[in-house]
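quick q for whoever's on today - can somebody do inverse folding on this one?? i tried earlier but teh output was garbage lol. tokens:
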């Protein structure tokens, strides 16, 4: 996977005199069936959350209140997203290292996940993650070279 697959997803806003409502429906607004939902809150501006990648899980991060930054790294490229609206979600595919930081006062991060929690799906050590994605890319490149020369 690569950072090219990461993207902002616009979510619908339904407004009337009572306020705003945003709805998220599976396979309509997010590219997977949501199997788990969690959120983080009461976050210090200096705290770092995430700091991991997944082997197969996909997720969408939504800033439902306040703001924060999401640093993404696929082992070859890096990018940062500033989330500050509940009408946008950041899609993160597998094999992308993600870290959230720079939380504003009252920031809340809602996460939609494609799978239930499974500790074995996590890369928690950045060096192990880099080793894996670089080896996977080397195998893929070698496989492509072999297919071209056959």
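ok took a stab at it. sequence:
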């Amino acid at each position: 996977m690569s950072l090219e697959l990461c993207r902002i997803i616009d979510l619908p806003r339904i407004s009337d005199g009572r306020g705003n409502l945003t709805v998220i429906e599976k396979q309509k607004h997010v590219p997977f069936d949501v199997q788990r939902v969690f959120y983080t809150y009461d976050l210090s501006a200096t705290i770092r959350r995430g700091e991991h990648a997944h082997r197969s899980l996909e997720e969408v991060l939504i800033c439902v209140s306040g703001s924060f930054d999401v640093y993404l790294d696929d082992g070859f490229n890096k990018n940062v997203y500033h989330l500050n609206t509940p009408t946008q979600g950041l899609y993160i595919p597998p094999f992308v290292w993600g870290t959230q930081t720079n939380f504003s006062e009252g920031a809340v991060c809602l996460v939609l996940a494609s799978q239930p929690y499974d500790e074995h799906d996590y890369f928690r050590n950045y060096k192990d993650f880099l080793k894996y994605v670089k080896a996977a890319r080397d195998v893929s490149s070698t496989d492509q070279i072999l297919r071209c020369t056959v």
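fwiw The longest helix spans residues 126-149. also The domain at 3-149 is CATH 2.60.120.10 (Jelly Rolls). so keep that in mind when u check it
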